[in-house]
């Protein structure tokens, strides 16, 4: 019997193939090992990935197809064998990459516009709680103005300022429209796409004009089970501290000022012997920053699930500022059948928001006062004549009021979808999306006694005798429904993708707030007010009993809702991979505007390098492209601008009754529509010298037609489409990468964007929007600084007599000399003119990456050029005596002593009027980021059962080369007032160490 079984086995053996462990190596066409290549044994349905040396081991059958895939490289199929050597060819400038576009995906090569894709790993290990901070200087046409305050949102603009009301782009997170992405953990991001051109934006209709940033969160990779943990910890420090007078310098300048004003010397210096640097006093030295992130991902044939959790703790540069943030991300995709998928995306945020401080009062407070009176155990009050009423005590504000405001933000952003493929080429997708944001807070205003040295007694701080409680809650709910049908097919050399869709977007907002004060003070025998509300969070509610005085309770509420119903369509077509056409159309019907509007775009491209006549040894890829289209901007200063509310009008008397009248707040304009931005782009993309050089150049032109504005005249008030704003410029992007040898490679890249902004028209000639110190009017850039041109300082009485007379204030020898712009021989308000432009001539960024063996070094620089900033501090005031900039030590003090710094005399306020004296150069160059990293060898990690391990040292904002006098040269703001330095908040230097490990 055994012989028979042996004979049968020998007969069957040639027809049976046993799975075994296949080993091999994967490199690129330069011989460099590729890390993270996905390898799939198609028959055995087994997966693996390559390690840091490009090695892999895969369970497969001899001779079966093994598929190698890696982003940026062409897919390769080989027969399974021992000691496989796979060489992947790089896709030309990653043109085969699939990028996110509105309501779908596409190969970058097939698009006619300028979509920039940023991989999640480029921003994951940077010390920023908001991923937008990490994009600064990375993308041509994208201007990011950061703030150093923890939890703050940067000012983001794409290709200029196009409106009076809204500049920020639309953010789309896993399909849902939102107005910020604070809730996203950078470690959970798979990619970001920045959409700038009309062919990619018009599908977003009335919300596409300011550009769009698409965020895609991570999904599980096919055939992998991974656990990733990354963490970083570091410190923040202040840089760029303004030069302010010390105690001795302050006394010198203050006495000079009193002498110039004809006032006797200050008589209380004997009471103030300190030399206080208030910035150092309230600064949080070595503010701590750390975060921890862990993710789990698993993929089977029918289910892919990814879960990520993050916690960050960020101290501010002002004492007692602390921002805590917990995030969670869940992505699950279930394949019920081969052609049916169900999915869920969920993001969660729980943030504890700090009681934010600033350094404005610190740079203004006199240095001669000690912050605290140790003998009495109370804080000192600033002298009455030196800002005591206006500035308070900066240290008391950050220490005495520590923990008196408790704010919390909770947010859920979810997306449930189903996707059905049928008839081979059709895909039907339905999605229900929701963004629920609940923000609440409550706080306490304590009562303090401070020591007033001038009167030698204790007095109530800020003259406040009553403790108070405040409480608020804001709730915003965004609901979205998307239904799309797509068709994708290839007919010979024709390739077409069609999309049709219907979407509905609803927004609901409600807010309530209130305050309550204690009963009138009731002091006991020990001088304690027994009616004070306790300084304990348990009592910080509006109905606090028995302390709150109901007669002082004030409350307020606001609410609004709106909805948009839209239909959309898009065509992506290419012929033979050489000739491309993209077209899109969207119709938006809004509850806020009476008429529906259509938005459209058409783009075309020609990949010349595929033509036979173009073949050469230098340029491997060249595509010229262009697109035109219209996008909308659905924002005004209030909701439902075509449906004005009623306000009180003139009353009328009927008999003995006084009857109030109600009238419309402004005239109805039934023809009002959302702003329409007509935009154009033309450019080219190229690679050369064996793909070492990549180059892209674009010219863009955006014209806001029907600028939406609120018009107020002597006889009329209404909303109208009454103006035009133009933005245009060039974008240049270039990179060079080279493999020197098998151990060393490097890459260099850079981008530069020119910006030209102009208000072409605005209602009638001379109509303007004035927001001191800015003015928006036809013929000038939006939000230009407006004031007097300083020609020098009056040196003598003869100089005054020989100069035009001024009727804008009291002035004399030693004061600023304003230019007679209109030449009428008198300095009047009509001589104010444009004295600065906050929009830069160009923005730029460049970076270098060096890799040697397992070491890598990355350097990022970022800057702007040609803009001005307005210094709104340190200029003197008619209302309070603040500290002086040290530059005032060079003030005019006699003929010939200075022709720029006026005399120290702020009594009339003449020298503090808006002028070029306050305008400073806003150009700067910053070493944005430096990172040194080490990736451990796979042979070492195998012993520890670790797939990858990276350790890094990161330094951010190390050096800034600039010319202005404030903490920082960058300032955001509103569309009609930005670039104004109000004392600001420093952009910190952040130094962190961290690791990233995958199991």
Describe the model:
With about 1000 residues, the protein is mostly beta strands. Among the domains are: about 20-90, Sandwich (Immunoglobulin-like); about 95-220, TonB-dependent receptor, plug domain (Ferric Hydroxamate Uptake Protein, Chain A, domain 1). The protein has ten helices and 62 strands. It has a 22-stranded antiparallel β-barrel. It has a five-stranded mixed sheet with strand order 10-15-16-13-14. Strands 3-2-5-6 form a four-stranded antiparallel sheet, with no helix packed on it. The longest helix is centred in the first third of the chain and has 14 residues, at about 245-260.
Indicate the mean pLDDT.
Answer: 92
CATH class of the domain at 94-221: Mainly Beta
- Our estimate of the beta-strand percent is over 45%
> End-to-end distance, in Å?
51 Å
Which topology of the domain at 94-221 does CATH recognise? Ferric Hydroxamate Uptake Protein, Chain A, domain 1
Radius of gyration: 33 Å
Structural class: mainly beta
The CATH homologous superfamily of the domain at 94-221 corresponds to TonB-dependent receptor, plug domain
How many distinct helices?
10
Overall geometry: globular
CATH architecture of the domain at 94-221: Beta Complex
Low-confidence stretches: 1-17
Main beta-sheet strand count, sense and barrel state: 22 strands, antiparallel, barrel
Strand segment count: 62
State the helical fraction. Answer: under 10%
Membrane topology: Multi-pass membrane protein
Subcellular location: Cell outer membrane
Main location: membrane
Pfam families: CarbopepD_reg_2, Plug
């Amino acid at each position: 019997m055994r012989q028979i079984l042996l004979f049968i086995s020998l007969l069957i053996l040639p027809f049976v193939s046993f799975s075994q462990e296949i080993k091999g190596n994967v490199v690129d066409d330069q011989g460099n090992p590729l890390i993270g290549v996905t390898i799939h044994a198609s028959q055995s349905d087994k997966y693996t990935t390559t390690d840091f040396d490009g090695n892999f081991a895969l369970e497969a059958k001899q001779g079966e197809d093994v598929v190698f895939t890696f982003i940026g490289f062409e897919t390769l199929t080989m027969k399974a064998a021992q000691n496989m050597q796979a060489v992947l060819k790089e896709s030309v400038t990653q043109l085969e990459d699939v990028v996110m576009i509105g309501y779908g995906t596409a190969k970058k090569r097939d698009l006619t516009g300028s979509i920039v894709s940023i991989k999640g790993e480029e921003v994951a290990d940077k010390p920023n709680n908001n991923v937008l901070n990490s994009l600064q200087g990375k993308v041509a046409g994208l201007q990011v103005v950061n703030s150093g305050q923890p939890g703050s949102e940067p000012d983001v603009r794409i290709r200029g300022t196009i409106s009076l009301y809204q500049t920020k782009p639309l953010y789309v997170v896993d399909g849902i429209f939102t107005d910020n992405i604070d809730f996203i953990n950078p470690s959970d991001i798979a990619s970001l796409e920045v959409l700038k051109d009309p062919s990619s934006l018009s599908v977003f209709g009335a919300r596409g004009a300011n550009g769009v940033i698409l965020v895609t969160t991570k999904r599980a990779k096919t055939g992998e089970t991974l656990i990733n943990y990354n963490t970083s910890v570091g410190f923040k420090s202040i840089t760029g501290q303004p030069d302010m007078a010390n105690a001795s310098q302050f006394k010198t300048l203050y006495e000079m000022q009193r002498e110039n004003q004809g006032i006797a010397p200050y008589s209380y210096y004997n009471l103030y012997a300190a030399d206080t640097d208030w910035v150092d006093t309230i600064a949080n030295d070595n503010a701590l920053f750390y975060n921890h992130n862990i993710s789990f991902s698993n993929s089977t044939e029918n289910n892919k699930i990814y879960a990520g959790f993050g916690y960050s703790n960020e101290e501010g540069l002002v004492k007692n500022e602390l921002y805590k943030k917990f995030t969670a991300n869940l992505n699950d995709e279930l394949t019920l059948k081969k052609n049916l998928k169900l999915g869920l995306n969920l993001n969660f945020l729980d943030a504890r928001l700090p009681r934010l401080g600033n350094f404005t009062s610190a740079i203004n407070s006199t240095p001669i006062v000690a912050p605290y009176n140790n003998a009495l155990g109370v804080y000192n009050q600033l002298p009455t004549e030196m800002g005591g009423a206006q500035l308070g005590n900066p240290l008391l504000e950050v220490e005495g009021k520590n923990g008196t405001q408790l704010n919390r933000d909770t947010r859920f952003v979810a997306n449930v979808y189903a996707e059905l493929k049928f008839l081979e080429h059709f895909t039907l997708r339905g999605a229900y999306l929701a963004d629920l944001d609940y923000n609440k807070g409550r706080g306490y205003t304590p009562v303090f006694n401070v020591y007033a040295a001038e009167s030698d007694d204790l007095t109530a701080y800020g003259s406040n005798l009553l403790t108070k409680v405040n409480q608020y809650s804001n709730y915003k709910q965004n609901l979205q429904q998307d239904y799309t049908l797509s068709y994708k097919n290839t007919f010979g050399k024709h390739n077409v993708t069609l999309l049709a869709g219907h979407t509905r977007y609803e927004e609901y907002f409600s807010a309530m707030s209130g305050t309550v004060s204690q009963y009138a003070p009731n002091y006991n025998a020990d001088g304690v007010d027994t009616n004070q509300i306790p300084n304990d969070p348990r009592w910080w509610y509006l109905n606090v009993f028995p302390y709150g005085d109901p007669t002082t309770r004030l409350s307020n509420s606001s609410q609004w809702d709106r909805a948009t119903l839209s239909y959309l369509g898009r065509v992506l077509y290419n012929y033979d991979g050489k000739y491309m056409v993209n077209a899109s159309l969207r119709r938006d019907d809004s509850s806020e505007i009476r008429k529906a509007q259509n938005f459209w775009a058409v783009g075309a491209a020609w990949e010349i390098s595929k033509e036979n006549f173009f073949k050469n040894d230098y340029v491997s890829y060249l595509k010229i492209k262009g697109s035109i289209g219209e996008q909308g901007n659905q924002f005004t200063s209030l909701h439902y601008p075509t449906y004005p509310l009623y306000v009180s009008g003139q009353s009328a008397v009927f008999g003995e009754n006084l009857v109030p009248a109600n009238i419309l707040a402004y005239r109805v304009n039934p023809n009002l529509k959302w702003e329409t931005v007509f935009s154009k782009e033309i450019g080219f993309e190229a690679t050369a010298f064996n793909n070492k050089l990549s180059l892209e150049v674009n010219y863009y032109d955006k014209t806001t037609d029907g600028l939406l504005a609120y018009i107020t005249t002597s006889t009329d008030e209404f909303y109208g489409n009454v103006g035009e704003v133009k933005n245009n410029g060039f974008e240049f992007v270039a990179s060079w990468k080279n493999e020197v040898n098998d151990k060393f490679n490097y890459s260099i890249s850079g981008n530069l964007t020119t910006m030209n902004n102009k208000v072409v028209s605005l209602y009638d000639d001379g109509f303007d929007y004035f927001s001191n110190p800015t003015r928006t009017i036809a013929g000038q850039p939006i939000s230009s600084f407006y004031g007097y041109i300083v020609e020098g300082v009056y040196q003598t009485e003869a100089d005054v007599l020989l100069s035009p007379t001024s009727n804008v204030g009291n002035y004399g020898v030693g004061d600023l000399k304003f230019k007679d712009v209109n030449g009428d021989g008198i300095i009047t308000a009509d001589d104010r003119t444009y004295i600065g432009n906050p929009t830069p001539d160009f923005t730029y960024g460049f970076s270098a990456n060096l890799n040697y063996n397992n070491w890598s070094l990355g350097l990022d620089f970022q800057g702007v050029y040609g803009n001005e900033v307005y210094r709104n501090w340190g200029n003197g005031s008619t209302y309070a005596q603040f500290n002086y900039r040290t530059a005032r030590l060079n003030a005019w003090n006699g003929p010939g002593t200075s022709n720029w710094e006026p005399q120290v005399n702020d009594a009339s306020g003449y020298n503090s009027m808006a002028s070029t004296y306050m305008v400073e150069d806003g150009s700067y160059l910053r070493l944005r980021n430096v990172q040194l990293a080490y990736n451990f060898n796979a042979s070492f990690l195998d012993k520890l059962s670790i797939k990858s391990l990276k350790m890094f040292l990161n330094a951010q904002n190390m050096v800034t080369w600039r010319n202005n006098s404030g903490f920082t040269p960058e300032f955001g703001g509103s569309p009609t007032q930005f670039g104004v330095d109000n004392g600001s908040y420093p952009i910190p230097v952040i130094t962190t160490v961290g690791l990233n490990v995958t199991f």
